[in-house]
Amino acid sequence: MASLDFEQEKTNFRKFYEDNEKLLVEAKNAYLGILRSLFAHSETVEVTKIEGRVKDKEECVRKFHRKYLPRLEADEQQYEIKDCISDLIALRIVCLYKDQITLASEVLKRHFKILDITDKISAVEGTEDYFGYKGLHLDLALGDQLASQPKYQPYRNFTFEVQIRSLVQDAWSVLDHQIKYKKAIPVDLKRRITVLSALFELADREFQEIRNATRELLQQATVTEAPEGSSDDAGSLTAPAARPKPITAFNFLRVAGHFFREFEFEPTRVDNFVQNILELDAEFQKSDLHKCLNDNLKTVRDYRDYFLAENPGKTFTPYLMVRHCLYLYDKQTFRPILFKGTRERFTDWLKTLQENAN
pTM for this one? Predict the structure, then answer.
């Protein structure tokens, strides 16, 4: 029964909490299960973490006293503490990128009843409080379809809050909570915090921009090239196209993946490998790699089989095969791509192969 007696309402809330604590924890776990299922196979939202908690009983009382009690008493409005604590059950979704926050919220809107939305991102960015916490908060209840399922019926009256943050926002919120809510901030520290907050925001934006640029490079790498010599052989009079850009790790993976379908190239190692190629030939292109492997891989495979037969226990990885192909493609330019001993063994085998052929 609502009242204006704070002491009585504290007692009532504590009893409600103790009577329902086990059910609240079960509800929290059930809601976590739903969210994890919704985002497990999402193609649009990259979720790094989904977690939740039931708010501590005394923390709820303190929050009510600080945030709601003064206004309710001033308006002489009767209350029950439990009705004011929207984050008694609180879940958190951490997305990899900032622009996925809205996408995650759209998923939630399709499966739950939306009771309230608090956009702390816009609220903070619209003020001078640049070092404030950012995130999107949604107060939710089970939708009719979920609430009708027997396993969720015990929790149908428990609303919950979901906070959606980017990975960078989540990291910043830890520091924000420490410095903002527990002490007054001196002016000199406030300036330093503002600078730090700007760096976090810049990092959030840059991660997103790098992702976009990476996707663009991957899309460019998937463009099918015209057959070699097609324009000249057909007598085309069209103006020559601009020379393609030098090879990147992305289109290296596209070409190498075609010739070595069973091998998984490591992105970090590929990046270093491509840099090694470009140090020897700064204009080496995707089409050059394709021709290099297409023309020489059979010879290198024959040499690999010979080498492994002569050296049991040794390995001959696709990386080493590509190095041998590059050497055959341009022996002068790519001479350093093979160590001296490796190169000499290969050239001796090639010489023997040629002599046998004659």
Answer: 0.61
